[in-house]
Amino acid sequence: IRERAARALVRLAPDAKEVGPALATALEDGDAAVRRSAAEGFGRIRPVAVGTVPALSALLEDRDAAVRRKALDTLGRLGPAAVPSLAAALKSADSEIRSQAVALLGR
Is the pTM here over 0.85, yes or no? Predict the structure, then answer.
């Protein structure tokens, strides 16, 4: 239910001011699917939520690989503010994250 709620928030109110706080809370949820949906949500809201870079960067160390990948994908949408996090991802123990970071930095 919490995962669907995170997705619905972005569909119903794609304004960062309205849904940002709820999505930020969801980034710390115990359920990986909720964290993944929240990370994806931050890539869809407008204006771009560059203030979420630290929280999304922390998810690059998440125990769930899908959460790590979604957080990195979202960071790639946030522009120059996320470049240091993308560069740090080059040192990840997860080879998929390293490869994805290379691709995102090459854009």
Answer: no
